[in-house]
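2024-03-11 09:14:02 DEBUG pipeline.ingest accepted 1 chain
2024-03-11 09:14:02 DEBUG pipeline.ingest length=408
2024-03-11 09:14:03 DEBUG pipeline.predict start
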Amino acid sequence: MEHMVHSESEKHKSELFDIFRKKFEGRLEQTDLDFISCAFNRYIHEMVKLMKDGKSAHEKFFSDIIINSIDAIIGFDNDSKVFLWNKGAETLFGWKKEEIQGRDFGILIPRKLLINGEKQYMLNEIKTKGYFANYETERITKSGDLKNVSISRFVIYDDKGTSIGNVGIVRDITKEKQLEKELREKENLALIGQVVSSIAHNLSNPLNIISGNADYLLLDKKDGDEGYEELKTIVDEAVRITKSIRQILNFAKPLAPMREACNLNDILDEVARKSKYLAGNKTIDIKTNLSKGVKETKIDKELFNDVFFNLVNNAIQAIPPDIKGIVKITSQIKDNFILTEITDNGSGISEEVIGNIFKPFFSTKGYGKGTGLGLAFAERVVKEHGGKIEVVSKKEKGTTLRIFLPER
């Protein structure tokens, strides 16, 4: 551009000097023309400088917007390799520019989505439409964390209209999705409470009559008498239904923890001791490794007793009867949190199922063997105390439940 301006100015300067010579017919000395030429050149030089400075400022302005944007802005070449990686991308994904530049963008897509063909879907959308907008999905960070994101992506062209790559704008919507999830859970709990309260009210009287009459008839019978097993089954099943209804009602009610200073190790010790009687005909060794560094913290002792007892019971139930079972209960201090882990060598949880285990009423135990509220209730209790619960599992290898509670 600068060369073109100087070339054009020389041509116009020559034409201008021809006009001067004709108009003034020798009245202008060569020194006068040289002076005018120098002034003209300085004028053109200043104009070019102003144009360059203005362009640089303009480019810098937009460059700073891109580089310092809070949203992740990522540029890809036609081979899907990263060439632009702004500060927003560094913050969101944890990768530095020099670490990610030149790598395929598939590194950001979780494995399950890659298997389902998301990468190819996005490339096809770009190829056929030239863009897509507000596509909500998940992305994986350098540390392995999953983020909910909204992606808009579009093709970029050169001056000749040829595609030279595409740019993606990625916005972190993890908190928004979490709030939406919590709102849905609260709405679902309120609905569950209304429905179950109505059901419990309508069923309580018939159940009491059934179980009461069966109990009365059992008074005159003993084990082995005709009809004893049938009556015993009626009583047991009525009790089971009553317990299930009570558990659902308790889950639907808002939590109101009664916090008191206590040591988690004491709760875990008691749970380990009582859980030995849950093994039935299985051979299961319950081991504890509790850190002495765990100090007292303010929690609802009864709630956590129920939570840990249920988790250990789940671990025992997950162990097949034909193997020697091991359930490990450990505690330690990690990053200002009390970390409790309950590990078993049971049948494990498949990838297809693991994402649903904390959902209310979801159960893998089979019909009539559970309400599907144990883990959902555990998650509620832990969150109410400012902590979090995680699961790590491999099919046929076992499962570990991790509970993080603030050390306070």
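2024-03-11 09:14:41 DEBUG pipeline.report The chain has twelve helices and twelve strands.
2024-03-11 09:14:41 DEBUG pipeline.predict end
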